Amino acid sequence: MEPIITVSGLTKTYASGHQALKQVDLTIRRGEIFALLGPNGAGKTTLISIICGIVRPSTGRIVADGHDIAREYRPARTKIGLVPQELTTDAFETVIATVTFSRGLFGKPANPALIEKILRDLSLWDKKDAKIMTLSGGMKRRVMIAKALSHEPSILFLDEPTAGVDVELRRDMWEMVRKLRETGVTIILTTHYIEEAEEMADRVGVIRKGEIILVEDKAALMQKLGKKQLTLHLQAPLDAVPAGLSDYALELAADGHELVYSFDAQAAETGIAPLLRRLSAEGVDFTDLNTRQSSLEEIFVSLVKDRP
């Protein structure tokens, strides 16, 4: 798939000496939803700010939709929409006025029909004449997205798009992001909500201490790194895992009423059949069993927790 953003050899060291980014190389594909995950202070916002031309890199090159960010700043910036984490809107302006003004900032001619479509798509049309200060937090975030879309960018950055938003509105936002992707907009989102990436992303990148430690198709990542767990619901609770089962990756759960076995679903031998035979030999009876695959959150934690 054709790249729309190419980041090469990117570093950022601040005057204090803090190195926020270390030799970042990253390619974003046209038309995808890319989730950038990382703990606080990992460098997510710094990376986005540099790509958007807000922060200058120490070294490196960025090309956005065919334009070098440094040499062709204006045409590159017109290709990008940014929805920052902070809700910074003109509180006393109306919704339609602030979105229309944002389009003008990029030198785009007035287009009332387009502004109406954006507001309708974001369920803001009935609020078009409302002052932003009167809106709920979720509606204000929609206004931020409308402002970012007003100049018709081909790339949209969403920095923690659902921070502080309730679950119902979060799902509405997910649906809205999918619809944007269907119109051809490439979307890069940072999020602390792992389920957000699991729900929406085509690919996932993980950044830690200024370094990209992994970029992978979401499905392939979960298949490659995701463990499965077999949970056995015991007929009688156990105080400890029997010594005769110590060579299996077993843990007790639910106050000893469940025995959990972790295994690699991709392995030729999962070990389940011999485990069940061993349980029988040890006199451990169970009433039911079920399996589940690791979530993206568990995979993410395993990737970052043991690194120096």
Describe the structure.
The chain is of the alpha/beta class. The mean pLDDT is 86. The longest helix is centred in the middle third of the chain and has 16 residues, at 167-182. Helix 3 (95-105) runs parallel beside helix 5. Strands 6-7-8-3-9-10 form a 6-stranded mixed sheet, with helices on both faces. Strands 2-1-4-5 form a 4-stranded antiparallel sheet. A 4-stranded antiparallel sheet has the order 12-13-11-14, with no helix packed on it. It has helices at residues 44-51, 73-78, 95-105, 112-121, 137-149, 167-182, 194-200, 218-225, 272-281, 296-304; strands at 3-13, 19-29, 33-37, 59-64, 67-68, 80-83, 155-159, 186-190, 203-208, 211-217, 228-234, 250-253, 258-263, 286-293. The protein is built from 10 helices and 14 strands. The protein has 2 domains: 3-223, P-loop containing nucleotide triphosphate hydrolases (Rossmann fold, 3-Layer(aba) Sandwich); 227-294, Alpha-Beta Plaits. Helix content is 32%, strand content 28%. The chain starts with a strand and ends with a helix.
What brief labels describe this structure?
308 residues; 2 domains; six-stranded mixed β-sheet; 10 helices; 14 strands; 32% helix; 28% strand; nucleotide-binding; ATP-binding; ATP binding
